[in-house]
Amino acid sequence: MSLSQSSERSRSLVPVMAAAGISGVAGYVVLVLAARVLDPAVNASFLVFWGAVYAAFGALVGLTTETTRAVFSSGDRGSTAVFPVLIGIGGSAAALVGVSGVWWAPLLFGDAWSGLLLAMVTGIVLFSLQSGLNGAAAGTSSWTAYSLSLGSEAVMRLVLCTVAAVVGGHLVGLAWAVVLACSTWIGWVLARRDYRRFVRVRISGSRSGLARRMLVACAATGSSALLLVGYPVLLRVTTPADVFAGAAPIVLSVSLSRAPLLVPLGIYQNVLVTRVIRDGLQVLRPIVGGLGVVAAVGSAAAWWAGPWLLHVINPHYDVSGQVFAGLVLTAGLVAALTITGAATVALDRHATYLAGWLVATAVAALTLLLPGSLESRVLWSLAAGPLAGIAVHVGGGLARRS
Fold this sequence. Notes:
Keywords: Membrane, Transmembrane, Transmembrane helix. By secondary structure, the protein is mostly helical.
């Protein structure tokens, strides 16, 4: 790699990492805001909604990942338009969630299920198209536009949630604030020509082939989202209702422990896909090494600072420093699984990508069914699941390719 190429890539990462930092901070503040204005039982319901809607969004991130790969590989010289496929998949997903939600939403969301379900369906429609736009930007290496889209969405979510809290919107109001932020991309498309170009992006190959790969990617990222952001849903369905009513402290601790690693990595993984396509698997070595250092240092810091931070957010929330340290280490494992998953997508090994995340999610869910305290079940599931998924990714494709 030439010095000029290295410098260019370094400059391209600056806006991406800035957007990652903004997204991480904004997500933190929204969760803190909810914990401050809602009582613990209602906040537990909000965290379940947050987990459910971000699990759906996480599935739709597969649209971003596959659009990135397809556009980057095609060089935007193909004959197949991407956005009609995105509209079809996003609309179908919204319809499926809306119709099926009549059955599962009352069980998951409680008395406020109708307002929360409608908010979730609206968010799915908006986010599916935003995912395609972000993928087109990443696939054309338009990292500034990509970063603006992600960063502005996070800022808008924080603004809307703050307004909802101030006017007393509480649970349903905060839920709508979360999903309406996904409409920010519309303003960029109306205001800037480069974003309108992303809407018209084309790739080589057939529409049916693109749709099939997108669906496989969405299945994998949907499974991954249950571990990354939808974990409260897994915990809710594997925990008795009376125990889960007091689960807000550990659920919030999981989110606080993960955000510094997983929010930036979630944004960076599309950069990683393009780098592995271009330069091979050797680009993973410094990333994995740096991840290990950050997880170790973060775990030590969390042992001391975690309980104090949780008390600042809500004086009634108690989680030990030992548990916080373990949560940060498990977040490192989930981050490593995200890296191996992005690498398998870059190598066009979609079946291995899907299998790794499905195995990880299944192992994590089954581990939650084991006897023990709530904290120990959470820690064991968040360690066992990612380790199983990493083994599938490495054994099923990365080891042979390297």
